[in-house]
Amino acid sequence: MKKLFLLVCIMGLSIWAHAQVQLSAQVDKTALALDDELTLTVKVSGISGNVIMPQLPSLPAFNVYSREMEQNIINGNTTLLFRYIMVPRFVGKATIGEIKFSHDGKTYTTAPISIDIYRNANAATATAAQPATAATTANPAGIPATTQPPAEESFAHLPPLEAALAHRAFQKAGEPFFLIAAVSDKAPYVNQPFTLGVRFYYSQNFYEAPYQKPTVSNLFMEDEGTLEGTQQIGNTLYHYQEQRYQLTAAATGKATIGPATVRYRVGSAPRDIFDRFFGGGTVGPERTAQSAPITLYARPLPQQGKPTSFYGAIGSGYTLKAQAEPSQVPAQEAVNLTVTVIGNNDLKATQDLALPTLEGFKIYPAAPSAGKAASGKNGAQTYYKIFKAVLVPAASGIYTIPPIPWSYFDPKTTSYRTLQTAPINITVTPAEKTESSFNFSGETAAGNGFQTLASDIRYLKMTLAPEENLLERISRFSIVNMICAALLFLGVLIVCTGERSSARKKAFPTAKNTLKKASSCQTISEAVSTYLQQKLDINTGSLPLKEIVSRLNQKGVTPATTEAFSLLWQHLEAERFAPGSNSSQSTARLCAQALDVLKLIEKETHR
Amino acid sequence: MKRLYLLVIAFLSFLPAFSQSDLQQAEDLYRQGKFSAALSAYETILKNYPNDPFVYYNIGNCYFKMGSKGLAAANYYRAFKLAPRDGDIRHNLTLALESGGERFVPAGMPLVLHKAFFYLSDTELKGCVFALFWVASLLIFWCLIRKKWNHLATLACLLLLISGGWLYARVRLAQDVLAVVAAPVAEIRSGPGTNFPASASAAQGHLVTILDEKDSWYEVVVNSQGIKGWIEKDTVEKV
After folding, report:
1. Distance of residue A163 Cα from the nearest chain B Cα, in angstroms
2. In this predicted model, what pLDDT tens digit does every residue of A235-294 receive, in sequence order?
């Protein structure tokens, strides 16, 4: 009996367990970075028969880009796994709300799962990224979520636009159709891009809903795209279509955004001509949904601390990088310099970057390009602006492009921030093709493998020139040199003059000594000639007697003395040309006679 | 007093080090491709060493790299006049002039002869003439007194005559005031004014000889072309 009772109990429990539907939701991590992805797994077990997809809550913080379903049937029990791969859209704390699953008239819900989204992976890994499981919580009673509109602060974890839209949507909860509009910043700075979102919520079918965009004043408006989604508000699941605009305040002061309108008809469109005739489609009267107008105040940018490298960009999270290609180039060849700014705000309206002057380069700036970068996996829109310039180095060498500054205004900190590119080194090799006038020594490759490629000037002198050499030092004292040279010349002159004077003084004593020792007429003749040469500058060798006498007269010698000299000279000539006729007596006599004549001449020329 | 001596010695020993660091700084700027800044640095050094050929050479290099080949040639010329035997100066001057279509060594003149003629700088040549004059005078003096070394005295006189002639030729050559076209293009006009038509244009780096001047104009002959005319003073740089 006991065994029977136990068997019945076991069967009863198994039947109860079989009939119990279990719903659970699990994420693979609770903290992740913006560029990471999250896998949400919803497991439904204990069901049989036809099933429908679980109903996900509104996930404004995520983009769901992959959905998978896996079905396992074991012993007639079906287990369904729904996997959603999602990427976060915003930094902050996000919540995956209650996931609902309806089966056999009962609604089951999971507990909300809280997810932390960080800007980078480091922060995300710093937080323990434990998988989170939402406990299976059946809500068979189908109790609806709160219908009271939550305070705006409760959406603080969402981006401003999303929070404002969500808040306004909750205010309209209960209406089957409504249109709301909100901006991401109610007090933007002039030229600061911000976003306007106009969202049309509907919880019923509608037919033909022409949309009229809002009018704006003191604003530039540009379409930014549309998106669709669902949102659970209260116990109503709304679908919505959203139109986004990028706005920029043109001037300081008040700016207005008029109401946007959607005219719609409730019901469904007739599918074909028979519907039109037989009322297959049900279309109600035209209604209008209108958003509330928005008034903004555009603030001026602070002038204090505005850097010269500020070109009008406003926002945060900008990155700046520069690249030069190629980094090694021959002289006179082009180097492409690209400076790229990437950020979360549109950069089209910003001014062009002023490149610094680069020594040794000719710079040819190109028109910049700006636009939207492809959205990353996290769905965040990024914008870029690219400045390009062609640099042509004039000569070979190693050059450095200095850091290029670019500033933006950060509205969060209300301050200017300056980014700088990293310095870039460019190696410029000698030109492969020199100017024709330079190529004077260009040669073809010789047999020894040496080839002159180009000619360039030689390098700097790294020292000062050597000290002056001796010649330069001598020339430095040119005046001293001149004076000394003149003195030297004078000395030579004096020496020359003095020598002649001395010889003149010594002429008679020399002649006298010679005559005393003379033993031949030849010696007497030479002594007389030398005397006349030294004393009176009369060269007897080349002059006839008559001329000698004449010059003696000119020198002041008396005619009597000249007569005596003539006789003496004739005797000496005779002895010289007729040797052998003379005797020692006649030689002594001639000596005495010559001495007398020279004495007379000496005496007369001294007067 | 000793302290004063030490102070003076310390100051004098500091001067070359100071100039050396300036040179290093200028060279660093040049290597970084900041030729304009390097030029300013060298011009500052030049104020302290106004007759240093290497500073002129470096200034010429800066101008050359900045694309002002006329001014580069002018500064190389100044360096060459002070240090004519330096191979680097000769090389760069030749290059700078040839970039302007000029020849440094006149056509038909053997390079060896040109090098020989400019082997000594003007200063050195003047010193050489003085030195030879001294030697010759002393030898003559000695010869007159001692009646010896007649041949040596004759040789010295001969060398003095040759060097004197060389100096004379160089002085005559230096009387031609040379200038280099420094502007990218200079117009040569038939008269000293813009109201006279331009007869030719000379690119930078051309050598001209200045014949005369009037107001802001030079009368010049373009050496390579033999064209005579008037050129604005601002467009040329005297060597």
Report:
1. 54
2. 778 888 889 998 888 888 889 999 999 988 876 655 555 555 555 455 677 888 899 899
Q: Is A485 on the interface with B (CB under 8 A)?
A: yes
Best of B130, B159, B163 to disrupt the A interface (most A CBs within 10 Å) is B130
In the chain, the amino acid numbered A377 is K
Give the three-class secondary structure for A211: strand
Beta strands in A251-334 (DSSP E): 253-257, 261-267, 283-290, 294-298, 310-314, 319-325, 328-330
Do B59 and B144 lie in one domain? The reply is no
Range name among A77-86, A434-443, B105-114, B175-184 with the lowest pLDDT average: A434-443
Does position B1 have pLDDT exceeding 60, yes or no? Answer: no
Residue B110 within a domain? no
Q: Which of A11-20, A478-487, B163-172 has the lowest average pLDDT? A: A11-20
Calculate Rg over the CA atoms of chain A: 62
Which ipTM value was assigned to this complex? 0.76
Secondary element (H or E) of residue A118: strand A113-118
Residue A2 lies in a domain: no
Q: Which two tokens stand for residue B89?
A: 């100066």
Alpha carbons B142 and A180: distance in angstroms, whole number: 122
CB contact under 8 A, A471 and B53: no
Strand-strand pairing, A405-410 and A310-314: parallel
Q: Is residue A83 part of a domain?
A: yes
Chain B residues close to A462, C-beta within 8 Å: 23-24, 27
Asked if residue B153 and residue B225 are part of one domain, the reply reads no
Tell me if chain A has a CB within 8 Å of the CB of B96. Answer: yes
At residue A436, the pLDDT reads 42
Tens of pLDDT along A209-247? Answer: 788 899 999 888 888 888 888 777 877 788 888 899 988
Dig out the tokens for A306 from the structure.
């505005």
**The CATH number of the domain where B59 resides is what?**
1.25.40.10
Picking from B23, B32, B98, the nearest residue to A440 by CB comes out as B98
DSSP conformation class of A383 = E
Taking the model in full, what pTM does it have? Answer: 0.41
CA-based end-to-end distance of chain A: 193
Residue range of the domain that includes B42: 2-101
Interface check for A470 against chain B (CB to CB < 8 A): the answer is yes
Residue B238 has pLDDT above 80, yes or no: yes
